[in-house]
Design goal:
Layout (H helix, E strand, L loop, with lengths): L1 H5 L3 H8 L4 H13 L4 H19 L11 H14 L6 H22 L12 H14 L3
Amino acid sequence: MALEQIFECQRNISRLRSGPLGKLLEGFCNWLLGHGFSRSTIRKHLFRLFHLNRHLGDPECGFRESLSSRDVKASFKVYPLRCRNRGALEEHVRRVRYSINRFLDYLRVSGLLDPLSDQEIYQPLVDAYLKWMRDYQHA
């Protein structure tokens, strides 16, 4: 249990394990520990990921079973509007983005991120182009 190695407070552990990303955060914590991150850095990353976890748990979000890049982009749009301004908002949002991008790196390496979610928009265009190439250019 990697979260127990990082946090002593059971309330924090249960908050991190709740929500749609609860099971993934344990693996992410193990991944960070394996890459030599300090306990304080891991805490910061996990608490910043709690914002994404809370967003995905919102019924208005429409989160499905697997995390996609589209879900993360939607959270990037909504998060600055919801967060409390306790200083430089841009700096805080930049740090949250950094932690979420590190989490996405972990998901890509683990094969848990939907890699085709960004390409769905362009797929009809690519299909039409390939059809045109076959029909008119005989390629």
